[in-house]
User: Which sequence fits this backbone?
């Protein structure tokens, strides 16, 4: 039970990091891309570790943490690469962020279906958030270089939407099993 609480707290903190990163890019779209790589790398390392911890939690529904071991390893490694090689990553950063948001949206699509099966009445909010993330991730993947400031704002909005989606999932789908 303690692991679920810790995982949920880390999951919420990660979601808040995504929201803050998204708002920062919306407010300051001309921020240095290299600084953004360092910040994003740090957030992804934290996010990856959070997902790995979450995978081993005792969540009643097994919705929020069901894919977290593989994703946790992936995001931790991606974060390390961003921190160690920001200049190399800058050329593919929009694609990578778009891919992350798209994949996360697809996983949340499955989560919404599972939430409906569990009879959770607001499952459709998870579905709506998933579809928004899929759309925004797709835009970043297929239109990655449509102007630097506009791109940073799109990445900011995408990260903010993904963060809000994570917050909703943490509060709505994570229930602790009684002992």
Assistant:
């Amino acid at each position: 039970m303690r692991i679920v609480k810790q995982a949920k707290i880390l999951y919420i903190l990660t979601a808040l990091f995504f929201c803050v990163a998204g708002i920062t890019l919306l407010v300051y779209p001309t921020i240095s891309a290299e600084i953004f790589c360092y910040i994003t790398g740090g957030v992804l390392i934290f996010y990856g570790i959070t997902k790995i911890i979450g995978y081993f939690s005792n969540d009643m529904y097994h919705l929020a943490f069901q894919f977290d071991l593989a994703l946790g390893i992936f995001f931790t490694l991606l974060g390390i690469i961003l921190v160690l090689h920001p200049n190399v990553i800058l050329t593919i950063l929009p694609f990578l962020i778009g891919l992350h948001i798209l994949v996360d949206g697809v996983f949340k699509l499955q989560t919404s279906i599972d939430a409906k099966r569990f009879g959770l009445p607001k499952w459709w909010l998870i579905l709506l958030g998933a579809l928004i993330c899929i759309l925004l991730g797709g835009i970043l993947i297929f239109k990655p270089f449509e102007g630097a400031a506009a791109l940073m704002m799109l990445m900011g909005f995408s990260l903010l939407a993904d963060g809000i989606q994570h917050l909703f999932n943490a509060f709505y789908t994570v229930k602790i099993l009684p002992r």
User: Anything to note?
Assistant: The helical segments are 2-27, 33-55, 68-84, 86-89, 93-117, 123-142, 148-173. Residues 109 and 130 are 5 Å apart (CA to CA). The chain has seven helices and no strands. The two ends are 8 Å apart (CA to CA).
